[in-house]
Amino acid sequence: MTEPWRTGITTYDEKNIWVGGYAIGDLMQRATFAETIFLLHAGRLPSKEEGKLLDAILISSADHGPGSPSAATARLACSGNRGSVSSAIAAGILAIGDQHGGAGMECMEVIAEGVAIAKSEDLTLQEAAEKLVDNYRARGARVAGMGHRQHTSDPRKEVLFGMAESYGLAGDGVKFMLALEDAVAAKVKPLPINIDGVLAAILFDLGFPPLMGRLIFIIGRTAGLSAEVAEELAREKAMRIKVPVTYDGPAPRKLP
């Protein structure tokens, strides 16, 4: 006999749908989308402050212009296949990875490692951050969550960390990430905490596992990708192939 699939997320009958044990109608009337996302992934409804913070994280990840890898990929896929909105958005999501929007998961693992070092070796978070940076430098590895191609200071950092502090939700994750920023500046060079690092720190303090660092970016960015694809359909012609390209290969030559 085939074992049934198991889930603790959603169930239904002929007349009802329950998400996390709550009737869908009640959630529709009394919960926000961000609160429902929290419920889906944590199995509980968030506090008002936790819900606002997750909502802000989703907004911060929604869009960063058509030149970001996910948006550019979605628009290019839409340009070549205007009949499938879903494939264009899916293409954009597939462009999210370790270098673009996906480093939050790795950064949450870094935070967990640093906090564990501090506790196990009776170090301050600053001392643990400095030790971790030394370890990464010795391996020639880059610390996740640091540095941004467009920003010398990510404007989303102060807002999200400020909200976490004001709500009393900033814990070791936020503290360690700030310590890590100082340690990297002292031992490598000044690098701003990017959005991956910011959301990683807050999600760590909210009790989510590292995988959420990547998933929450995908959830938030999907909203932006839908807008990018809609704009591509509304404002641009199909087959936009005149992308700026500089050719530096061989000059025209005869086949021997």
Automatic annotation (TrEMBL):
UniProt pathway annotation: Carbohydrate metabolism; tricarboxylic acid cycle; isocitrate from oxaloacetate: step 1/2
Family annotation (Gene3D superfamilies): Citrate Synthase, domain 1 (1.10.580.10), Cytochrome P450-Terp, domain 2 (1.10.230.10)
Classification via InterPro entries: Citrate_synth-like_lrg_a-sub, Citrate_synth-like_sm_a-sub, Citrate_synthase, Citrate_synthase_sf
Stored Pfam families: Citrate_synt
GO biological process: carbohydrate metabolic process; tricarboxylic acid cycle
Family: Belongs to the citrate synthase family.
Name this protein carries in UniProt: citrate synthase (unknown stereospecificity)
Protein species of origin: Terriglobus roseus (strain DSM 18391 / NRRL B-41598 / KBS 63)
